[in-house]
Amino acid sequence: MNDTIARDEPAAAPASSAQPKKVFVKTYGCQMNVYDSQRMADALAAEGYSPTDAIEDADLVLLNTCHIREKAAEKVYSELGRIRKLKAERGERGRETIVGVAGCVAQAEGDEIIRRAPVVDLVIGPQTYHRLPQAVRKARAGEKVVETDYAIEDKFERLPALRKAEVRSRGVTAFLTVQEGCDKFCTFCVVPYTRGSETSRPVAQILAEAQRLGEAGVREVTLLGQNVNAWHGEGPDGSEWGLGQLLFRLVEVPGIARLRYTTSHPRDMDDALIAAHRDLPALMPYLHLPVQAGSDRILKAMNRRHTADDYLRLIERIRAANPDIAMSGDFIVGFPGETDADFEATMRLVREVGYAQAFSFKYSPRPGTPGAEMPLHVAEHVKDGRLQALQALLGEQQAAFLKSRVGLTMDVLIEKPGRQPGQIVGRSPWLQPVIVDEKAGEIGDIVRVRITKTGHASLFSEPV
Ligand code: 5AD
Ligand code: SF4
Questions:
Q1: Residues in Cβ contact with 84 at an 8 Å cutoff, skipping those fewer than 6 apart
Q2: What pTM was estimated for this model as a whole?
Q3: Which residue CA neighbors atom 18 of ligand 1 most closely?
Q4: Which of 125, 130, 111, 292 is nearest to 194 (CA)?
Q5: Does the Cβ of 292 fall within 6 Å of ligand 1?
Q6: What does the alpha-carbon distance between residue 173 and residue 81 come to, in Å, rounded to a whole number?
Q7: Which residues of 401-439 are buried (b: 16+ CB within 10 A; e: fewer)?
Q8: How far apart are CA 288 and CA 209, in angstroms?
Q9: How far does the centroid of ligand 2 lie from the alpha carbon of residue 191, in Å?
Q10: Does residue 67 have its Cβ closer than 6 Å to ligand 2?
Q11: Of 31, 64, 184, 214, which one has the greatest count of Cβ atoms within 10 A?
Q12: What is the pLDDT of residue 118?
């Protein structure tokens, strides 16, 4: 027997449930998954699981997965292949490893995952995370567990409340899910199927969570939702609130100095939300507002329910409310039926808007969505060429935006130590990392600096 192993596993310490257990969580996909992973880790902490960054030490391995494009979904299976070897190795050392798949692949594929990857012990969809501790207990007793129904109970009510110490270890910025799911049914998208229909968390629940974040030292909160600007709820006065009203209330939470929200749909940008961009200095001047394409024919086929012109006019109104606002977006190239002329319309729209930041993807047919069944799929090499052209243009715009910050004086929220001694790193109102002299302040401070030059995607500064 290898003596390293003998030292790891002293004979005097028989495996018992009292032994501290470790969980390794790997997160794929969007920010909501990042938030969910934290909530799952918190729920497991109550069960005696402490988080680890070393997968080989983990008694529980949890993959929080993304189904948005085929590539994202396939990554899970290659990771499960590696985990199978790991589980076997740990097994040889007499250690149990529970393997769980959570997130949108879990929701979309259910028990099919266990058929394809028998290493998996438990599959749990995004609407049932509050049942995770119980599911883990069952899996440890040898059961294969699949939890993918849309639970009627409110998972947020049943998940343990955020604990101060846990929040503190995460830093001065935090995500807060306020809305989940989607009723828009864009024809390319799996989200309405994986995350279910649109639901908003109640005001009181959101405020309580924001309060906790503020108490734990969080300065900047990003409200999350697949359709975050469709959020609505009943305000304390009994009236119907939209996201704009909620933002106005959230700035009153002690400690919280900055607010952001993502991701929005153009159809749900109402007047109150646009007014918040004018009247609420704590609301950062940055808006992620995906348009996906610039051709009306393609927008219609995508079921976006707005035209390119609707989008452009909306941005005009937003910029009239706050000229400082930086735009960000998502684009899909090569949707079925997209011609060169359609793609040119996307390029024109991008030129017209001028984005500070953007994400662009090749269309990926997703099983069960209407787009996958449409005729005239675009050849892969055509998608490649269009993506390259679009990304070159967006890259130029991003660089131009960065350059336009040089010489400006701005407030930066200090987030972490820098890579070089003497430096700290903060975040600009427009989301770029800013390198700051460490004498300027401490983590959690908002300091005023002047931008001196640009880095690759970051900004350098001097104190003012
Ligand atoms: N193929 C390619 N990109 C997609 N997105 C969503 N579904 C698909 C798909 N089937 C992109 C959209 C969305 C972002 C989160 O992912 O641009 O806004
Ligand atoms: Fe991926 Fe969308 Fe699910 Fe987020 S909601 S994890 S982006 S499929």
A1: 117, 119
A2: 0.92
A3: 330
A4: 125
A5: yes
A6: 34
A7: bbeebeeeebbbbbbeeeeeeeebbbbbbbbbbbbbbee
A8: 23
A9: 6
A10: yes
A11: 64
A12: 97
CA pair distance 192, 368, nearest whole angstrom: 11
Tell me how far the alpha carbon of residue 321 lies from the centroid of ligand 2, in angstroms: 31
- What is residue 158's predicted lDDT score, i.e. its pLDDT? 81
Average pLDDT of 113-126? 97
Percent of the chain with pLDDT over 90: 89
Lowest-pLDDT choice from 8-22, 207-221, 232-246, 415-429: 8-22
pLDDT one-digit tens code per residue, 328-365: 999 999 999 999 999 999 999 999 999 999 999 999 99
pLDDT band at 7 (very low <50, low <70, confident <90, very high): very low
125 lines ligand 2 (CB under 6 A): no
Q: Which ligand has the minimum distance to the alpha carbon of residue 68?
A: 2
- Strand 326-333 and strand 357-362: the pairing is parallel
Pick the atom of ligand 2 nearest to 190's CA.
8
For ligand 1, atom 17: residue with the closest CA? 330
Q: What is the pLDDT of residues 281-292, one digit of tens each?
A: 999 999 999 999
Q: What pLDDT does residue 165 have?
A: 67
Q: Please name the helix (run of DSSP H) or strand (run of DSSP E) that holds residue 5, with its range, or none.
A: helix 3-8
3-state secondary structure of 369: coil
- Give the strand pairing for 446-454 and 409-417: antiparallel
Q: Strand, coil or helix: what is 463?
A: strand
Shortest CA distance to 282 belongs to which of 414, 429, 146?
Answer: 429
Q: Look at residue 333 and give its three-state secondary structure.
A: strand
pLDDT at 160 exceeding the cut of 80? no
State in Å: Cα 255 to ligand 2 middle.
Answer: 30
**Looking at the CA of 330, which ligand is closest?**
1
Report the amino acid identity of residue 113. Answer: I
pLDDT tens digits, one per residue of 300-318: 999 999 999 999 999 999 9
* C-beta 189 within 6 A of ligand 1: yes
SS3 217: coil
Closest residue to atom 5 of ligand 2, CA basis = 191
The answer, yes or no, to whether any atom of ligand 2 lies below 6 A from the CB of 33, is yes
Ligand 2 centroid, distance to 323 Cα (angstroms): 31
Kindly state if the Cβ of 397 falls inside 6 Å of ligand 1: no
Tens of pLDDT, residue by residue over 161-195, are 777 666 767 799 999 999 999 999 999 999 999 99
Token pair listed for 458 = 């970051």
> Which token pair is 367?
């099983």
- How far, in Å, from the CA of 104 to the mean position of ligand 2? 6
> Measuring CA to CA, how many Å separate 279 from each of 247, 341, 359?
11, 40, 28
Q: Which residue has the tokens 């040089």?
A: 406
Which ligand 1 atom is nearest residue 290's CA? 18
Q: Give the number of the ligand closest to the Cα of residue 189.
A: 1
